Amino acid sequence: METVYLLIVLAPLIGAAVTGLYGRRLGRVGAHRVAIGAVAISCALSFVTLFGQLSGAAEPFNGAVYTWAAIQGLTVEVGFLVDRLTAMMMVVVTFVSLMVHIYTIGYMADDEHNWPAGSGAGVASYQRFFSYINLFTFSMLMLVMANNFMQLFFGWEGVGLVSYLLIGFWLNRPSATFANLKAFLVNRVGDFGFVLGIATVFMYYGSLDYAQVFGTAAQSTGETMTLFGGEALVATVACILLLIGAMAKSAQVPLHVWLPDSMEGPTPISALIHAATMVTAGIFMIARMSPLYEQSVTALSVILVIGGITAFFMGLVGLVQDDIKRVIAYSTLSQLGYMFVALGASAYAAGVFHLMTHAFFKALLFLGAGSVIIAMHHKQDMREMGGLRKYMPVTYWTMLVGTLALIGTPFFSGYYSKDAIIEAVHLAATEGRPGAEFAYWCVLLGVFVTALYSFRLFFLVFHGKERMDAHTREHLHESPRVVTVPLILLAIPSVVIGWFTTGPVLYGDYFGGAIHVAEAHDVLHHMAEEVWHGPVSFGVHALVNPAFWLTVAGVAVTWVLYIARPGLLPGVRRAFGPVGGILERKYGFDALWINGFAGLGRGIGRVLWRGGDAGLIDGVLINGTARTIGRVAALVRGAQSGYLYHYAFAMIIGLLILLTWLVGGWQGWFA
Amino acid sequence: MFEGWPVLSLLIWLPILGGLAVLMTGERAADFSRRLALAISVVVFVLSLALWAGFESGTAAMQFVERTTWIDTFGIEYFLGVDGISMPLVILTTFSTVLVVIAGWEVIRYKPQQYLAAFLVMEGIMVGVFSALDAILFYVFWEAMLIPMFLIIGIWGGPNRIYATLKFFLYTFLGSVLMLVALIYLSYQAGSFAIPDFYGLGLDPAIQTMIFLAFLAAFAVKVPMWPVHTWLPDAHVEAPTGGSVILAAIMLKIGGYGFLRFSLPITPVASVQLDWLMISLSLIAVVYIGLVAIVQSDMKKLIAYSSIAHMGFVTLGFFAIFRIAGSEAVSGSGVVLALEGAAVQMISHGFVSAAMFLCVGVLYDRLHSRRIADYGGVANRMPMFAGFFVMFAMANAGLPGTSGFVGEFMVVLAAFQADFWFAFLAATTLVLAAGYTLWMIKRVVYGEVANEGVAALRDINRREFLILGVLALAVLALGVWPQPLVEVMEPTLSHLANIVMAAN
After folding, report:
1. Contact B380 A609 (CB under 8 A)
2. What angle do the packed helices A2-55 and A84-107 form, to 10 degrees?
3. Considering just the CA atoms, what is the radius of gyration of chain A in Å?
4. Rounded to an integer, what is the distance from CA A158 to the centroid of its chain?
5. Longest alpha-carbon distance in chain B
6. For the segment A625-664, what is each residue's pLDDT rounded down to a tens digit?
7. Position A553 confidence tier, pLDDT thresholds 50, 70, 90
8. Residue B280: pLDDT above 70?
9. Is residue A116 less than 8 Å (CB to CB) from chain B?
10. Which residues of B touch A71 (CB under 8 A)?
11. Are strands B63-71 and A230-233 parallel, antiparallel or unpaired?
């Protein structure tokens, strides 16, 4: 089996190297064939792996490939852990990646226009883009298939690197190079915590290998360490430090600030990296670490609160965005919050399941938005769109499917995953998990907000008056097939995947030993007995759920404001005036990070440099000493004759004194 | 194949004599002198690989030992040998010299044969520093090193080179005089000048403290540690590219090497007593210098400060070991891990800092400016170069998969066992290093073409591609598979840990 896993990982890496180094020679078609072929191989083999795991033909695999470093007390082996959790992630990653690869052919077809004339970076930019998304697929696979923390961190930062390169892909745009630096630095703040978390794990569990760490952790529950002068559970410290990493990667408040700006990157990567896969790495990581997180209710409660805040309050910001991609970006933030809430309620399977359904419908929405953007000649402001329905039927219908899945329409995939989260956190609240009550209200009200911003986008883009200029309108047409086929292929799982996977994944034992939940925390098991009676009855069950009616209300309100009675809208805006202002400033988080922390760092740096290095050390100590010597020298200048033998004589005398001191009296000096 | 050959002597004297030969080629045969210098440096590099090939990695013993009396009256010997710590450093030296010779190829127009000769002589001396096992021999090489570097900066340097060279010379010279006194004292105690005889003398703690401080004065300046670091940014700014490469890649390592070869094993008790000082200075280097690096407007200064911050990890790894030994870690103590991490960091920094300075050199050769503000949008004109520069910047920021990650990761893991806050402060480098390096990249490489100078830039030629490509391979190889290096160093470092711990 090991060879198969190696091939899955290495195919995109080789693809990235070939298209990156020989892109110009291969030409555009050659490059995209290589890149797509590589991902297709990975994708096919990932499906083989998944089915092997499902049929029970293959046991979970855990093995080393090579020894990265072996030092007394620490052995790190690069290897793979492939169980059902990994297999599911592999399929999601490679499938969405394949769709995005194909879509890219259409989206990046005329990328030369995005570069200034004569720019060397614009040459073969098409090939370079494929190289990057191949490299991304490799890094993401390394992340999900890792069997140890070092490799996890490698993949973790690897996807961060590619994200950096792709957000800044159009490197002549100031907004893009601002956004990619911001993304990298905010993620580094998270990684700062992540590395310390790894160090905690290594110190107290004695290894970086998952299996060994989980084994030791299981035996040493309740172990404490001293921190900030008090005692804390080792598991709590480790989990919260790792969580900081997850909060940055999965864009949770207050480390979310990079994600909306990341929309500066080309749309295919917004779909792949900043919606479907990379940003879910934090959710995956916590699910993978469930044996650790289960030991710390404190950490889980923190996750609940952070997830709840992100789910509700970031959704609200989505309401006031006019850029089509930014609306979807805030929607992504909010949905990642839902996944966090699931993890915090110990419903890891529900979090990962929502990760999967979200990957399909959110990638679909982004690619749909991209299709709209192509048609609109790369304009992204929804205020200049409207009535696109008749020009782009395939995009319209697939976007509708994606939107319905997102808001949790019964029988769509998003319904099964999101409703499970709401139910699970509700159950956790009744069982007294701290923070669960708060998170419950956040995700419940979040449903209303989701419906509002989703259909606001949908109506603004596809319905109502055609607000674009005449030139754009003349050229409106449906996107080519390389764009629409991926949309259709993503729309299919967005509708049906929940229907037949919810049972085994959420309420059955699909994950088996891959996810560990303490018996007392197992809300999903509880739900399996009380709520789940098959997909049909669960769908019908929606009618007695407040969440469903909130969704309906949300859609209805949007319909009234944007279709039926648009005249009401300015009045509503005025009524919410101050709130709108807060939302438009995004609660001031950007200002906090940019002027606050980044500005502070530069300020301190300047003070230390001017005051410390140049002022104190060089100014006073070094040059000051030199000046003093100069003054003393001026006084004794009389002794300077300028004759060499005078100096030599003085040196010899000095040496003699030194030698006498050394040989004779040395011991006495120190005794 | 090289059984019985005096490999180390060859590695020292071949470049020195070769350097003299290059010097004598005369003014008019510049092309010939370049080829000759290249041939010599390549031969020396290949020869140094024999060290690797013939090295027995299971032992901490000195290998390739050569020992004859030199000055009989004082018992001074010509005593050479390498172990797992010095062998990789010797190879790093010969490797870097090849790069420097190629890097100066058509750039150095003023007295090229003297320039190349200086670097070849420098190479021999540096190999001598790393392989000398006699204290006086070591000291001779140590001081001799200053002369070619003094000349390199003083002759081929920038406009403010006189201030920089004087500062460089005085700083390092003052430090090393104290070291000489300590070495002479030690020889009286040991009855020999052989460095291994200095180990395990069981000196009185008060005397150990004096000796430790004398060594510190010498090594702290070389590393350099805060607050005796201010010569480095000035020296780098004025030095020609080759000088910066050797300065950053090798000379700084000599300070770190000194701590391993002298301070820790000779004065272990003092090392424990003063570890608070060393750890504090190391953490100041990471945090304070990291912050200072952010606000630099000169690329070379920025990378120089970045070097100081990265070397903070080296000294942190060396001196955190005592507190790590007392930790309650499940994995058993991370003492060797800390030393290993610090040693790997030295090698890695040799590659990464060399690459960074070479990248700045590539830009400087074209626009004759090191100021960040004079650039912008370089990627539009030099896409290939931009690729390299971004890659090395990532290595400088410690991205996993590059060599920059390996040492820092190990040191942070180990330092955590000593104290949560050591690891906490050290880990700030993740944010700071990314901040100062990538902000520079943003302003230099990205954006629209900033001015006519940038608009006229031409991408790297084959020679530059070769140098940067080789370094890129080294950086990636060490990041993806550090085990071969780790394996070579491990026995020596764990032996060293035993010596140091046994004395306490």
Report:
1. no
2. 110
3. 30
4. 12
5. 69
6. 667 766 666 666 555 555 555 555 555 565 556 555 554 4
7. very high
8. yes
9. yes
10. 336-337, 340, 410, 486, 490
11. unpaired
